[in-house]
Amino acid sequence: MASVENERPVRSLRIGVVGVGGMGAFHARTLAGLGGVDVVAVADPHEPNAVATAEAVGAEAFTDPLALASSEELDGVVIASPDATHPELAIAALERGTFVLCEKPLATTVGDARRVVDAELALGRRLVQVGFMRQYDPAHVQVAAALPSIGRIDYLRAVHRNAGADPRPLERVVCQSMVHDIHSVRFLTGEEFAAVTAFASGPFPSGGYRHVLAVCTLTSGAHASLEFDDTAFAYEVSVEVVGADGDLLTGGPVRATRRHGGSLDVHLGTDWFGWFAEAYRIQDAAWIASIRENRTSGPSVWDGYVAQMVVDAVIRSSTSGRTEPVELPERPDLYA
Fold it and tell me: Does 9 score more than 80 pLDDT?
């Protein structure tokens, strides 16, 4: 057995974060708190964001996101910039052979998502993990682990309530928010979407949409419904799976029940960070572990690409009033 004196110290990983508004700053602080990780650089075109986060984690501040993503000095880069910038930044990091944690969505169009897939396929190895953090959420993980106990999956219902959001066009509602529910269906059932029939409430005078309902057929013939509300009373996410031998339902974060004035109430809150903070921490730690193992695990760019194809079908169906097919290309062996 080797002595402690002969053991080699683990080299700290050098990590950069691109886009340090709310989400990126959270990633930077989370990663800086992990052992063996140095957040050495952050970049944001809005210099006060970059400076504030850099000071908080002891990093260097930059205002050029592409330059940071293209750096050859990093072991990994987190992309948490505006959605439309994700493909260019991810491809820049891929060209340098850098591991990437890219916030969802992978892109805002199917074509751009495919560009990232093709760039990674050209390398012949996975380097990008997409930030579908519900795959690490303890409540979702518990449901996934219990799925064999309920037999054949017949139906899945995903409910997603957002609170206090500014009015958003349909494309942003589906691409930024419902994309999480789309991935939940895929990772829990192991199936693909075959067709989507969607309905949307809006646009309202504000230009925004509030409710979106998508009724989906999966490749096995099972069904899923995705229910989204952009201005609900609280932030809340739940998934119910109906099987041949029983049902499963996610639980939310534990909250105290208040008994007051003749009533019982539970404060849910309006903050999505609070609901999924632990999931983000587990995700970030898993990403760092995968870099150390020189492999990428977790949601792939193929998952991001397929989710974007379903997003596109939801938007098409909401505007056309028709059931829209989801016609997927053959999955490359790299993502088998």
Answer: no
Q: What share of the chain is helix, strand, coil (3-state, %, to 5)?
A: 40, 25, 35
Domain limits at 258? 136-276+303-335
Q: Provide the token pair at 13.
A: 């990983």
Measured CA to CA, the distance from residue 41 to residue 27 in angstroms comes to 12
Token pair belonging to 183: 């991935």
Residues 106 and 143 reside in one and the same domain: no
Query: Tens of pLDDT along 92-139?
Result: 999 999 999 999 999 999 999 999 999 999 999 999 999 999 999 999
**CATH code where residue 23 lies:** 3.40.50.720
Reply yes or no on whether the pLDDT at 87 is more than 70. Answer: yes
CA dist 219 and 151 (Å) reads 17
pLDDT band at 220 (very low <50, low <70, confident <90, very high): very high
- Same domain for 152 and 170, yes or no, is yes
- Residue 324 lies inside a defined structural domain of this protein: yes
Q: How far apart are the first and last CA of the chain?
A: 39
Domain containing 167 — which CATH number? 3.30.360.10
Is 315 found in the same domain as 263? Answer: yes
- Position 164 scores a pLDDT of 72
Same domain? 83 vs 148: no
Structure tokens at 71: 């750096």
For residue 294 the two structure tokens come to 């020189």
Number of domains in the chain: 2
DSSP β-ladder status, 153-161 and 223-229: parallel
Which residues are 216's β-sheet partners?
196, 224
Global pTM exceeds 0.85? yes
Is there a domain that residue 4 lies in?
no
Give the torsion through C-alpha atoms of 25, 28, 33, 39, to 10 deg.
-150
User: Is the model more confident about 170 or about 270?
Assistant: 170
Task: Give the model's pLDDT for residue 259.
Answer: 76
